[in-house]
C-alpha cells in the first residue's frame, strides 16, 4: 500500500494533462477577449461600408434600372 501511494505521488502524467488543460483554457480566454474587442470594431467598419452602398430601389449605379430580373 505504501508503494502505491509513493508511486501515485510521483506520477506526473496527470499534472501534465492539467497543465495542458490550463494552457488551452488561457488560449480560449485570449481568443474570446480578442474576438469580443475586435467584433465591435468590425461591426462599425461593415456598417459604414453598408451605409455607403446604394440601397435597392434608390436608383443607384449599375443594373438596368427597370427593376426586372433576367
Uncertain ranges: none
β-sheet strand percentage: under 5%
Main structural class: mainly alpha
Secondary structure tally, helices: 2
Mean pLDDT: 80
The main sheet comes to: none
- What integer value in Å does the Rg equal? 29 Å
N-to-C series of helices and strands: HH
Q: What is the general shape?
A: rod-shaped
Helix content: over 70%
Number of strands: 0
Query: N-to-C terminal Cα separation, in Å?
Result: 83 Å
Keywords: Membrane, Transmembrane, Transmembrane helix
InterPro entries: Flp_Fap
Organism: Comamonas terrae
Protein name: Flp family type IVb pilin
Describe what this molecule looks like in 3D.
There is one protein chain. The chain is mainly α and 70 residues long. It contains two helices and no strands. It has helices spanning 2-10, 13-52. The longest helix has 40 residues, at 13-52. The N and C termini lie far apart (83 Å). The mean pLDDT is 80. Pfam families: Flp_Fap (PF04964). It comes from Comamonas terrae. The chain crosses the membrane at residues 20-40. Keywords: Membrane, Transmembrane, Transmembrane helix. InterPro entries: Flp_Fap.
Set down the secondary structure blueprint.
Blueprint: H1 2-10, H2 13-52
Task: Describe the structure concisely.
Helix content is 70%, strand content 0%.
What keywords describe this structure?
transmembrane; membrane; 70 residues; Flp family type IVb pilin; 70% helix; 2 helices; transmembrane helix; mainly alpha; Flp_Fap; rod-shaped
